[in-house]
Write a structure and sequence with these properties.
Strand order of the largest sheet: 5-2-4-3-7
Largest sheet: 5 strands, antiparallel
Shape: globular
Number of strands: 7
Number of helices: 6
Amino acid sequence: MAQQMRLAAVYEAGDAWLADSSAHPTLVRAAWNKDSLAPIASGGRWLAAETALLDTMKALNRICEEHRGPVLADTEAHKAWWLVSLDAADELADVRQVTVHVPGRPLHCPPTGWHLDSRMWLCRPDGSGRLTEPAVLAAAFGPGGHRHPAEAR
């Protein structure tokens, strides 16, 4: 029971952060209450960096957990979206596997605690506001992958 309560608190913190990323958090919550995906426009707190799902799975293995921000996946479309900082587009411009969407483009999101349709969070928003750093993401999609500082020595 205590485990379920801790998970519920983590999900609620993530949901609150995600909903508050929208200009209309009440509409986001209303969509989730109807078991629908909520369109949340990027550009308020984050941008969405789109990648192929298979490439994303490989990159997730190259990035340690404390450096990962939220990652949304669509298993039918074989795509994923990393939530990155608002200044990420320039740093990721030369990474051919990554497309950073312009501010204002909606990302159709389920709540953090479950999946809807074919979308699920591979790395859930936890309410902290942590995003994946563009340099880390670029390195993970690069030829050698992101190396932890201890591995670089």
